[in-house]
Design a protein that fits this description.
This protein is mainly beta and 65 residues long. It is globular, with a radius of gyration of 11 Å. A hairpin with a 5-residue loop joins β1 and β2. The chain has a 5-stranded mixed sheet, with no helix packed on it. The relative contact order is 0.34. The protein has one domain.
């Protein structure tokens, strides 16, 4: 499982999400109980350092689809 912190293009914190596969730029993803559709932006994810003890695999910048 791949866990991400989510951010808007303006840098707003959109919470977190977990997916069964790595998310790639341009992919459509679903967020929250209402399954709001979003698209991963140009850079996909920003990985954390391996030494980081965070449970997240990266920061994912997304926009409404």
């Amino acid at each position: 499982m791949f866990r991400y912190r989510l951010h808007s293009p303006a840098g707003d914190d959109l919470g977190e999400a977990t997916y069964a596969q790595m998310i790639k730029p341009g992919e459509e993803i679903h967020l929250g109980a209402g399954h709001t559709r979003h698209r991963a932006l140009w850079d996909g994810s920003v990985p954390f350092d391996e030494e980081d003890e965070s449970s997240f695999v990266g920061l994912l910048r997304v926009e409404a689809a």
